[in-house]
Design goal:
The chain is of the alpha+beta class and about 90 residues long. The chain contains three helices and five strands; from the N terminus they run ααβββββα. The strands form two sheets. Strands 1-2-5 form a three-stranded antiparallel beta sheet. Strands 3-4 form a two-stranded antiparallel sheet.
Amino acid sequence: MTKAQIIERVSEQVTTLTKRQAEIVVNTIFNSIRNSLQKGDKTEIRGFGSFRLRARRMKEGRNPKTGATVAVPAKRVPFFKAGKELKELLNR
């Protein structure tokens, strides 16, 4: 499902919202999650799951073309953990 399809669904479900207003709602939700992660905070949506950051250590990798060792810097990556209700729904 794409972002455009989510916007379409929201505008269909909430008949008082136009497509433009539904787009603003969806963008606000995504931006809130993005901003929360950027600050290092966790975002939890009950019954769905949680978004948080995981730290990856610095490691040594290899250039596949030359075989030379390359230092891969430490970084933070987003991580999604599905909630209990979502897991149960998917495994029925």
